[in-house]
Design brief:
Length: 329
Amino acid sequence: MQENREPQEETQAPSSEGQAPQEDRLDAESLRYKNGKEVAKSGLLGVFIGLAVIVPGISGSTVAIIFKLYRKLIFAIGNLFNKFKRCAAFLVPVVLGIAVGFVVGFFAVQNLLAVAPFAVIALFAGLMCGAFPAVKDEIKGEKKSAGRILLFAVGLAVPIAVALVSTLCVSGGRTLENLSWYHYLLFVVLGYIVAVTQIVPGLSATAILMVFGYFTPLMESVHLSYWQQNPQIFLVYLCLVAGFAVGLFTFSKALDKIFEKKRASAFFLITGLSLGSLVTMFFNPDVYAVYQSWAGGAPFAADLSVGIILFAAGVIAAYLFVRYERKKQ
């Protein structure tokens, strides 16, 4: 009997925007890990979320969609306080992965970006490109109304607009010294916005920080000598963390409600955001600086060749994983 019901659920799901498919109607018990493989997958998701803060264009939420963990992640964050035990148990591997990803990204990927920036970004761009079909699967079979197409177009335009502003309109970085009181309020808001980028696929925390001119100053501030000379930086960190925490919980809660009622429309927007973010991986301040150095006569054959190879490898590896996940489903 179960086999007869499943096809009906699959065909009926797209017909009603107000009723979410079964996998989107979650409860705390659905967050329980069944085996070590699921725990490892959540940890790996956390690594990509941690890397997303460092590498322009990477979206941890897109990886969550590929791993079929996106709805669970949003549900767990949004319901952490009222269903603490189960939600916290689900989030522990993700949080540990985030810590690993951030440390690896800060110390390893940042150094690699200094040596071969185009090649490194090409690898991550290939991974995101190969994974895009998994995002597109979420709107497969859904009705393409004018409103949904508009949402897709808006999603496509937003990350591209952010990349254009951060690359062409923002000159240099801001200072984190001699700050006024209103700067600290700005950092709370900025922390909130960064939290949104970690929840909504296709948005880049790095790009947002670059738009405001604080990405490089914040990265350079993580140093013992800087902390000793400028102890007020810890108040900046505190404001960012406070805004991030509030944004993470409040926006996750709101997004969880949106998915329950308007899942298909939300994924049209998300698909546009994800596609737009692929474009921005090859057009952001870091990569634009590489293009300028090439135009100025810097050798580029090796970096470009390795980049093309790594991009192709990333596409193939990610797409094979998507196909594997499709077969499992």
